[in-house]
Amino acid sequence: MSEDERAKVLDTVADAFAAGRQLIKAVADFAVDTIKALLSKENLAELKRMVGDAAATFGRRLGDITRTIADRAADVRNIATGRASSIISALPKRLPFRNPPEST
């Protein structure tokens, strides 16, 4: 091969590698952007809600699946809130031992 042919082949290979490098960079940027979008706060909260709903179907809670302290604390808070609201709704509007309001 002559020097000119060798230089031409090397230029062609270098151009192919440059295009390949740009393509790889574009694919990597796309993958990183997609992962960032998937792992946003809103999407993670929705995923937790879906897992919690699925766990409730089987009589479990989110904390039983993730085993994190934060999720277990949230489960306890939700249970306490639910039980407190059911107790409050069961109370009569007017307690029986209080005097009835006087009419004037």
Walkthrough of the structure:
The protein is mostly helical. The chain is 77% helix and 0% strand. The chain has helices at residues 3-38, 41-57, 62-66, 69-90. The longest helix is centred in the first third of the chain and has 36 residues, at 3-38. The model has no long low-confidence stretch (mean pLDDT 81).
The tally of helices reads 4
The CA-CA distance between the termini, in Å, is 118 Å
Order of helices and strands: HHHH
Fraction in helix: over 70%
What value does the average pLDDT take?
81
Give the CA-based shape: rod-shaped
Q: Specify the structural class.
A: mainly alpha
Low confidence ranges: none
The fraction of residues in strands falls at under 5%
Number of strands: 0
The largest pleated sheet is described as:
none
Work out the radius of gyration.
Answer: 32 Å
Q: Would you summarize the structure shown here?
A:
The chain is mainly alpha-helical and 104 residues long. Helices cover 77% and strands 0% of the residues. It has helices at 3-38, 41-57, 62-66, 69-90.
